[in-house]
Amino acid sequence: MTGAKRVIISGGGTGGHIFPAIAIANALKRIEPATEILFVGAKGRMEMEKIPAAGYQIIGLDIQGFQRKSLFKNLLLPYKMFKSVLKARSIIKTFKPDVAVGVGGYASGPLLYAASRMNVPYLIQEQNSYAGMTNKWLGKNAEQICVAFNGMDKFFPAQKIRLTGNPIRKDAVDIEGKHLSAMEFFNLSADKKTILVTGGSLGAGTLNKSIMAGLEKIIAADVQLIWQTGKFYYKSIAEHLANKQNDNIKVLEFLQQMDLAYAVADIIISRAGAGTIAELCVIKKPVILVPSPNVAEDHQTKNAMALVENKAALLVDDKVAEQELVDKVLELLNDPNKCNELSNNISKMALPNADEIIANEVLRIAN
């Protein structure tokens, strides 16, 4: 390979976009350490903190998404879009990238549009099983579209699609041989089954309410529970449980050592973000998904259905989770055949080396 390649990675807004972006950048540096990388994000969004923390430079665009709930807030959108495209053009002129990468999120649109007008080839990484508006629009001129689910030719030209999977946190899914140390870490008993509930770092209100509603049933079943509440819910849940004095229930605001939580779980209850699903496929444990209804174009339900249709996960609708989730979990815990079926089928959907496959595609395009 001649000369260090220059790569712009654009997008962000949520952890589901930011983490894959960082994973691709890290893989580029592993494969070709001389690669020069610049991130472009949206001002005021999470990426403006997370990307520098990961050791990369980022420039922010003054861009927002379409606000479905407040049409008034959209009045400035055309102006912000025009201004962001101009700034993206200026960034491209200065940085002179060989290739651009879009991972979704507000900043992807202006940057990739500017790249297409300036003859800079670009790659799109679509995390979800249902493509967002921006990516569908940009897909026509992309060199390559890396996807995580089958059937994405509904949204993109089939000849441009490559099934790569979503980049995952390698440390989080490294569970081999850790079952005993995980038992000790969480102070759990090897004689009892363990349920893991994870709603992400912010927590998931529905999951927390559902576990609270069925808590007495969990206690009566004498099973163990690792309950990651998220920072918004931790205090009230911990106070509520203070008088229960039950060694089977471990309540945590955040799981620093996700690998140990995955290693010790017999069943996992989770939302259905694309990054989480990619990890769960590699973990190969029985999963019950409760998709969040509060995401654009109901992505999470579509992500979850991609697993359900392959008999690789069970789904409980957000609207009925408080009434049905705990019963469904306890029923599954007592059905080893169903647990085996789910484990086997979800393992067939694992694509563990997405970061390196995508990074190699980026370098191929750059050449």
Features:
15 helices; 6-stranded parallel β-sheet; 13 strands; Rossmann fold; 367 residues; elongated; 15% strand; 2 domains; alpha/beta; 7-stranded parallel β-sheet
- Spatially, the strands of the biggest sheet line up as 3-2-1-4-5-6-7
Compressed to H and E, one letter per element, the order equals EHEHEHEHEHEEHEHHEHEHEHEHEHHH
Beta-strand share of residues: 15-25%
Task: Determine the N-to-C terminus distance.
Answer: 8 Å
What does this structure look like?
- The structure is a single chain.
- The chain has helices at residues 15-31, 47-53, 77-95, 108-117, 133-139, 179-186, 205-213, 215-220, 234-241, 258-264, 274-283, 299-308, 321-333, 336-347, 354-366, and strands spanning 6-10, 36-42, 57-61, 99-102, 122-126, 144-147, 161-163, 194-198, 224-228, 249-252, 267-270, 287-289, 314-315.
- It has 367 residues and is of the alpha/beta class.
- It folds into two domains: 6-167 and 353-366, Rossmann fold; 179-347, 3-Layer(aba) Sandwich (Rossmann fold).
- It has a seven-stranded parallel sheet, sandwiched between helices. A six-stranded parallel sheet has the order 10-9-8-11-12-13, sandwiched between helices.
- Helix 3 packs across helix 4 (108-117), helix 6 (179-186) crosses helix 10 and helix 7 (205-213) crosses helix 13.
- It is elongated, with a radius of gyration of 22 Å.
